[in-house]
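User: Hey, quick favor. My workstation is busy. Could you predict this chain's structure for me?
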Amino acid sequence: MVTRSNLEAWQRGPIDGVPPLLMPAAHAIVHAREDVEGALAGLTLDQIWQRPGGAASVGFHVRHLGGALDRLFTYARGEPLSEEQRRRVPTEGVAGVPPASASDLLADLDAILEPAFAQLRATAESTLLDSRGIGRQQIPTTVIGLLFHAAEHAARHAGQALTTARVVRDSGP
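Assistant: No problem, here it is.
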């Protein structure tokens, strides 16, 4: 039997306040958040930060998902990155002392997603084709390009987190 609880985010209907043209991006971000929670479920600290075969850790994928989304949404607002945003980029794969736990990573991600959803709700559809620039070189794009890439990028890293989590779970102690 199909229930709303086992439907994917896009199958559950509209998200309150999100403009219809941005609904696919919002659904992809919700789905990515749920996948991240599933990837982290039951992992030990060592497994979260393990780099199987030299690949990026689950912890990196979670941090990078949130950090990249935050940076892309900043560009979508037409703002430059802050020094804090720039400072965090090289630390996304660093476990920290003590290492960040699953609950730490989820709390940090949620702290990024809350304002991101507020931004989606506040984005007028009439601005979606407005020009924006990325980075110091001001690579040209649009508001909708940035918001959709942020969602697509989040989905990609959530999938990588799921795969890496399975590898570290299956590799044993």
